[in-house]
Amino acid sequence: xxxxxxxxxxxxxxxxxxxxxxxxxxxxxxxxxxxxxxxxxxxxxxxxxxxxxxxxxxxxxxxxxxxxxxxxxxxxxxxxxxxxxxxxxxxxxxxxxxxxxxxxxxxxxxxxxxxxxxxxxxxxxxxxxxxxxxxxxxxxxxxxxxxxxxxxxxxxxxxxxxxx
Length: 164
Known about the structure:
Blueprint: H1 6-15, E1 21-26, E2 35-40, E3 49-56, E4 59-66, E5 80-87, E6 90-97, E7 104-106, H2 109-120, E8 125-129, E9 132-136, H3 141-149
Antiparallel strand pairs: 1-2, 2-3, 3-4, 4-7, 5-6, 5-8, 8-9
């Protein structure tokens, strides 16, 4: 009789939603040097665009990066690229300075905060930059983000922008 339940168990296990939010942490023994990286990894997406957040001590910043290729500067500026963010039907646009190598950009503190807040509220986010698109599912973001921040975190000054 137990054998009849085994296929159902596999069916339910395969339907369980995978947590696309991956967390890596390093504990240095001193809160000001502890660090974490929270990134969105969608196994069903072929997009080379990645969203990630880094925390060192109490400083948090957000980045967009390409795993292959380089970002092309926008026509407005040779040193920046235009990015569009769609949050709950509202579109936001930001001109973001390119980092050396052209494969990574750091989001403004305002946009990083806006994205984190939207994802915590369960809103899905779409990002379009230089023809590359990624959609972030809020799913398990709030719980993973809480782990990312760690204990005793000052939520009022979340995005300080001190990581260079």
